From TrEMBL:
Location of the region described as Disordered in the Swiss-Prot/TrEMBL record: 251-282
A Pfam match: DUF1995
UniProt domain DUF1995: residue ranges: 20-218
Species this chain originates from: Prymnesium parvum (Toxic golden alga)
Stored InterPro entries: Chloroplast_ADK, DUF1995
Sequence ranges of Basic and acidic residues compositional bias: 266-282
Record protein name field: DUF1995 domain-containing protein
């Protein structure tokens, strides 16, 4: 499994990871984490971000409109997310290295699997950095080549499509172990969103700080409610999150929605009653 347990340096232990409220803030926080980890000598990193929806992206990897939305029949599929993810990766590397946008290049490594590579030229060769977007189990050759090319320089994997060695077929597990899992990749930034017990849950992790878990109790909520004090040293699992939600917010969402709807209907009925009374007086 990719490492996701973080050490907590004393300089950052009192700080808390922040829940991003915009893509730009997410990129900013990710770049800060990647930069801190790189300064600490962590040169093989994993970054997980939420890919925002961009309806303006009409063509992806040369796909035609007849293939579906953005060339991918699956709503929110990798082909739709790919150009947005590449732009996020470019922004992260540019902020980490301080490179001019002209010193950053990118290319498509695998059009079928929507995997790309971003290269940033730093002030010195030692500061050159690379980022692979959406690397998957079919990109071991590319991963091995890029790993050798970057050598002792920074290499980030953005939203890798694997997590465990068992994700690879049995004939590739030996290479995957050597190319990926033995290389000491660390999760240095993560921003995730998913459903747990019918509630919207968000997790955020920043290097040197740890993990925080939030629950959004309303569809209109933009700021989550923390599920714990301080930071967690490792990513909480689903069952722990479910237990915290059950303990702190026992009323399920469907019950809250029904109760709020009932209150609204009662208020509306009262207003209509007063309006009818006013009309009758007329």
């Amino acid at each position: 499994m990719l490492a996701c347990v973080l050490s907590l340096p004393t300089a950052a232990a009192s700080l808390l990871p922040l829940l991003p409220t915009s893509p730009d803030e997410m990129v900013h926080r990710a770049a800060l984490s990647v930069g801190r980890a790189s300064q600490d000598g962590v040169l093989r990193q994993v970054v997980k971000v939420i890919i925002p929806v961009d309806p303006r992206a009409n063509q992806v990897l040369g796909a035609s409109a007849s293939m579906g939305v953005n060339g991918d029949p699956r709503a929110g599929g990798l082909m739709q997310q790919f150009p947005i993810a590449m732009a996020l990766g470019r922004s992260i590397l540019q902020r980490v290295t301080g490179s001019h946008h002209s010193a950053i290049t990118d290319l498509v490594l695998d059009a079928d699997d929507s995997c790309g590579l971003i290269l940033a030229q730093g002030a010195t060769p030692d500061q050159d950095s690379a980022c692979m977007v959406f690397p998957g189990c079919n990109q071991i050759d590319h991963l091995e080549h890029v790993d050798m090319m970057t050598s002792r320089r920074l290499l980030c994997l953005v939203n890798p499509q694997f997590k465990y060695i068992d994700d690879f077929n049995m004939w590739e597990r030996g290479r995957a172990q050597a190319v990926i899992f033995d290389r000491g990749y660390e999760m240095t930034y993560a921003f995730e969103q998913f459903a747990c017990r019918g509630e919207d849950v968000k997790l955020v992790c920043e290097y040197g700080m740890g993990w925080r878990a939030f629950v959004l109790l309303d569809d209109k909520a933009t700021e989550g409610v923390p599920l714990h004090e301080g930071c967690l040293p490792e990513r909480p699992d689903y069952y722990w999150l479910e237990a915290q939600i059950n303990q702190q917010h026992p009323e399920p969402r469907w019950s809250r929605v029904l109760r709020q709807g009932s209150k609204k209907r009662s208020k509306d009925d009262g207003k209509r009653f007063l309006q009818r009374g006013d009309n009758e007086d007329d």
